[in-house]
Structure prediction request, 240 residues.
Amino acid sequence: MAAKILIVEDEVAIQELITYNLQQAGYETLCADNAEKAMSIINEALPDLILLDWMLPNMSGIEFARILRKGERTRLIPIIMLTARSMEADKVTGLEIGADDYMTKPFSPREMIARINAVLRRLIPEATEEVVELDGLRLDPVNHRVTVENKEIELGPTEFRLLHFMMTHTERVYSRNQLLDRVWGDHVFVEDRTVDVHIRRLRKALELVGKDALIQTVRGSGYRFSSIPALPAVDSDAEM
Ligand code: CA
Prediction:
């Protein structure tokens, strides 16, 4: 799945240049030339990352970033600030309000892609196209294949996304609600129990290659993906 990047930039030439380079690099792009338009795009669907210009008409990029960081739904969206100002104090302000990185114009397309990739890898590794390997299990996001010793495991699209998320977020317990947010996306109205159904399907598929123990049920809390055998207190077979 290509990561979706929202470009908030009022200078048309720069907006087009960024769009062209991101699309060449395989990203999906959305554009807005002011904060209000950006907000209505975000209200439709959350982007994976925002490239946010500091100097925008009406509301500045800094103000907009502050609003995003306060919103329950938007506070975790990765933000890279773009600016023509290279003052150290500005950089500090940008990072203080919670921007994840900062780029001074003019920047090369290569630098931009490298920074975007670094932020995505750090914050949402499931949105990158890097192959993930764990305990003999290999997931390739580009060709949508999951294999164990060259044997392919058949998975539905939701199970694939679920496995991708879990393989890139190992050793942490995620509640069903957190999994719904991160794997199903926001604005999706499905019941918590839906998660259990897909976990069960995923376990069944992994069982065929003896890897079902990687998904552990942590009673009362959620699910964890781990190659470390579960402690006796953790019941790896039961549903929550
Ligand atoms: Ca501008």
Remarks:
- The mean pLDDT is 89.
- DSSP finds eight helices and twelve strands in the chain.
- The helical segments are 12-24, 35-44, 61-70, 88-96, 109-123, 157-167, 176-184, 192-207.
- The pocket of calcium ion is lined by residues 10-11, 53, 55-56 (CB under 6 Å).
